[in-house]
Design a protein that fits this description.
Layout (H helix, E strand, L loop, with lengths): L8 E11 L6 E3 L9 H4 L6 H12 L4 E5 L8 E5 L12 E10 L2 E7 L4 E7 L4 E8 L2 H14 L6 E7 L3 E4 L16 E3 L6 E4 L5 E5 L2 H11 L2 E2 L4 E2 L2
Parallel strand pairs: 2-3, 8-9, 10-11
Antiparallel strand pairs: 1-5, 3-4, 5-6, 6-7, 9-13, 10-12, 14-15
């Protein structure tokens, strides 16, 4: 719904959840040697590596893949079943039906027992995409951030970019070239941030936050602060 500004809610629908036991050859992306590519398996917006791996695993006769949840704050384990033969039995160990209600500001799971009603409510919080870019040139990265901000819509998820740059000086709005005490051959880029001179170089991790502060301010004004530990609102 974050990508559909005109859609304010979805009709309440029944959802069936069940517990099963599987018995088949499987791989675990959290273990060696697959864990070395964790940045690919946990990319919140680019699923191409996971999809390629799934196709390769299915072709090799692998029946299931265990992996780390990207959206779970605790990063617990998930399992992708690639073949019906993975199920140890035709009947689930347990089956439940829940009513799912989705609105722009909340998600509600509800089911009715014989003597009680069980309900869980979660505030709708946009996902943040984490991108590990490796080493990048400063100016193209800066321009890419400007383009991302200019093109984003009301529902565009926020992003965090991790990178490092080759040696470069950046001059902020208050910076002047005479602030450089000597010419050492390192390129200089004039930028639109505040401050004077900043040096970037190999081995220095740079974290860029591409966040829609107006949207977050509007959400807080409407909903109040969210207790992310419980997934609900604070009293």
């Amino acid at each position: 719904m974050l990508d559909s500004p005109a859609l304010n809610a979805m009709p309440t629908k029944p959802q069936t959840v069940f517990q099963v036991k599987i018995k088949i050859d499987a791989v675990d992306l959290r273990a060696k040697p697959f864990a070395r590519d964790r940045r690919h398996w946990t990319d919140a917006s680019d699923y191409s590596r996971c999809q390629d791996f799934g196709r390769t695993a299915r072709a090799a006769g692998v029946g299931a893949i265990r992996y780390e949840s990207v959206r779970d704050p605790k990063h617990d384990a998930c399992c992708a079943v690639l073949s019906p033969a993975a199920f140890a039995s035709a009947n689930p160990l347990e089956q439940q039906t829940w009513m799912l209600s989705v609105a722009r500001d909340r998600v509600i799971w509800q089911r009715t027992h014989v003597l009680d009603v069980e309900e869980h409510e979660f505030a709708a919080v946009a996902m943040v995409a984490l991108r590990a870019l490796g080493r990048t040139e400063y100016e193209p990265t800066w321009r890419a951030m400007q383009a991302f901000t200019a093109a984003r819509a009301s529902g565009t998820p926020d992003e965090i970019w991790l990178t490092e740059h080759p040696p470069v000086y950046t001059l902020g709005l208050a910076g002047r070239r005479e602030h450089l005490l000597r010419d050492n051959g390192i390129p200089t880029v004039k930028v639109d941030r505040g401050g004077q001179i900043t040096y970037h170089g190999p081995g220095q991790l740079v974290v860029y936050l591409l966040c829609d502060l107006r949207r977050e301010k509007a959400r807080r004004s409407r909903d109040g602060p969210v207790d992310r530990g419980r997934g609900g609102r604070m009293a």
